[in-house]
Amino acid sequence: MKKLLLIRHAKAVHDLSYDDFERPLRKSGIKDAEFMAERLLAEKIIPQKLFTSPALRTLSTADIFTQFLSLSKPKEDIRIYEASRLTLVNLINGFDDKFDFVGLVGHNPAMEQVIHYLTGQLVDFPTCAIALIEFEMDSWEMISAGMGTVKWYSIPKED
């Protein structure tokens, strides 16, 4: 069985003085990421490895999760930034089978699209939302449309 944890980056600053790639997290985004990381820890939902977009807001989100979950440094992959659904599926299909549980920190709209593609479910995926998808497969390479099931879903608390 393979498990995929999809995490959308936390709330970022919307300021024209920043290039999109360099937008930092807002204070509320940092709090949301910490809250969600604690929630994962409490639920014992801890991936073996995290992959992340290298965009500042996404990398910062991933760093918070690795700190709270005591994971190794996340693996940055530029393909996740501005990815299409197909790009994310290809990335997932290329994960090393030595990992049974992988986390992916990325951006919308691709995150919502990949959840729908892999599970057939339409899932609202606001900033710092998390979805756990399980597959009855032994190889990441075999994962395709409709093969997954959303087993856990959560969004940050409302302020």
TrEMBL record:
Matches recorded under InterPro entries: His_Pase_superF_clade-1 (IPR013078), His_PPase_superfam (IPR029033)
Pfam families: His_Phos_1 (PF00300)
UniProt xrefs under Gene3D superfamilies: Phosphoglycerate mutase-like (3.40.50.1240)
Domain of life: Bacteria
CDD domains: HP_PGM_like (cd07067)
Protein name as it appears in the record: Histidine phosphatase family protein
